[in-house]
Amino acid sequence: MKRYILALDLKDDPALIQEYEQWHRAENGWPEITQSIQEAGITGMEIYRTGNRLVMIMDTDDRFSFEKKEDMDVNNPVVQQWEQLMWKFQQPLPWAKEGQKWVLMNRIYHLQAESISTDK
């Protein structure tokens, strides 16, 4: 299992941010999108927001690759429809490559509980 953390900005508009969050409530999700995510080898996904910045945590199995997911998405008309809808709310990070939405984050710190000693 691998974990990936990605970031993206929303347009800084409270009404759009509220609508974006409504689309991501369980009752408003598109089953085809969930199916596409799972078929790509993504076993868990969470999205967090602060202000207009989003952070996505993805847990994946051995089937997952970004290249495979991109190829699947390009060839899935429902995913393309979803992505067009979401682009209404999203804006690329200033350092994103052209056409890139979510940007992979680099881990700069990791605390491992088993390495913490309580001895003084």
Attribute tags:
120 residues, alpha+beta, 4 helices, single chain, globular, 5-stranded antiparallel beta sheet, 25% strand, 32% helix, Alpha-Beta Plaits
Structure, briefly:
The protein is α+β, with helices and mostly antiparallel strands and 120 residues long. The protein has one domain (2-115): Alpha-Beta Plaits. The protein contains 4 helices and 5 strands; from the N terminus they run βααββααββ.
Would you write up a description of this structure?
- With 120 residues, this protein is an alpha+beta fold.
- Helices cover 32% and strands 25% of the residues.
- It is built from four helices and five strands, in the order E-H-H-E-E-H-H-E-E.
- The protein is globular and about 45 Å long.
- The N and C termini lie far apart (36 Å).
- The mean pLDDT is 94.
Q: Could you tell me how far the N terminus lies from the C terminus, measured between alpha carbons in angstroms?
A: 36 Å
Helical amount among residues, as a percent range? 25-40%
Number of helix segments? Answer: 4
**For the CA atoms, what is the radius of gyration?**
16 Å
How would you summarize the topology of this molecule?
Elements: E1 2-10, H1 14-23, H2 31-39, E2 42-50, E3 53-60, H3 66-74, H4 77-87, E4 90-91, E5 103-104
Antiparallel strand pairs: 1-3, 1-4, 1-5, 2-3
